[in-house]
Amino acid sequence: MIRLERIRDLLHKFSGKRILVVGDLMLDRYVTGSVSRISPEAPVPVVLVNHEYARPGGAANVALNVRSLGGEALAAGIAGRDVPGNELIRLLGEAGIGTGGILVTDRVQTTVKTRVMAGRQQIVRVDREDARERAERAAVEMEPVLQRVLNHVDGVIVEDYSKGVITQVAIDCIMRDCRARGIPVALDPKDNDGLTIRGLRLATPNYAEARLAAGLPMRRLPENPLEDGELDRIAEILMARWETELLLITLGPHGMYSVGAGGRTQVIPTRAREVFDVSGAGDTVIATALLSLVAGASDDEAASLANFAAGVVVGKLGTATCSQDELVDCMTRDHNGKGGPSA
């Protein structure tokens, strides 16, 4: 149980901590409106648009979460030399996120995900992106960029959406240089299971990603996550494969499964009051957990803070972030209602 005084002390220490987020950068567009009829052309709803906006997505959303929590963030990845790429870099700059690690190239187009929303209901998502192989070819130019921006950072997040930026060359460069500098590295994997990475401070797969990375067939999570011993088996495999000190497997409505270096396991129940959208919750988890660790939090403290922060963002629409005030408010409410952090 974390005391609120301790929480505030950790959050205060987030300031000045510089986190480099390396991964697949995207632009998220939202088209929102209302539905009052079905199209006469096809059995689909007609959305009357009343608002459109864009925000950084993918790995860029992790950087937004770092910044929202009070840390300093630097984004590294690839953007196309196109209108969405220019918009993405502009939005990151306006949010106070460093963009010196972004390679701008005409060899790829910027990944754009457009979500059409009616109220809080997503009607359809339209993706524009290049084949992964094109991004992989462009990513060979990333090594000198990474070597330059790895200076003077307190932690690195590798955010893999399997779009081609996170290659073995990039991983080797990051791990080699971070090991030499004593910089902790966190991994949020996707399905890029051919990569070799060892010596992590933190890894935050969701349940499906964890099963895939462990080489196990897909299977639904039981209502009691610990009842069949599968989580323990997955954790044992991943702790050895990644040589990670802290493993957090996110379990959706079941919360989070945590394993520290000492082997102690626990399931932390979800702290979400209401779930509207799980988009980007994993981004919040890794940003909060690594910031907590570099600020001096214990593994249990980092896991708890990350779990509460995820509970904040799933109550918002679309990919979202959590602020320090929202995190403190969520933890305070939990204390008052359930016996969470003490004052």
Description:
- By secondary structure, this protein is of the alpha/beta class.
- The protein has a single domain, classed as UDP-N-acetylmuramoyl-L-alanine:D-glutamate ligase.
- Helices cover 37% and strands 27% of the residues.
- The protein contains eleven helices and 13 strands.
- The protein has a nine-stranded mixed β-sheet, sandwiched between helices. A four-stranded mixed β-sheet has the order 3-2-6-7.
- Helix 5 packs parallel to helix 6 and helix 9 runs antiparallel to helix 10.
Helix and strand composition category: alpha/beta
Terminal residue distance: 10 Å
> Given the structure, what is the number of helices?
11
Apparent shape = globular
CATH architecture: 3-Layer(aba) Sandwich
| Fraction of residues in helix | 25-40%
Q: Which sheet architecture does the biggest sheet show?
A: 9 strands, mixed
Topology-level CATH name: UDP-N-acetylmuramoyl-L-alanine:D-glutamate ligase
Q: Average pLDDT across residues?
A: 89
Q: Number of folding domains?
A: 1
Q: In angstroms, what is the radius of gyration?
A: 20 Å
The CATH superfamily is Ribokinase
- Count of β-strands: 13
CATH top level? Answer: Alpha Beta
Entry keywords:
disordered C terminus; 37% helix; single chain; UDP-N-acetylmuramoyl-L-alanine:D-glutamate ligase; 343 residues; four-stranded mixed β-sheet; 11 helices; nine-stranded mixed β-sheet; globular; alpha/beta
Summarize the structure.
The protein is built from eleven helices and 13 strands. With 343 residues, it is an alpha/beta fold.
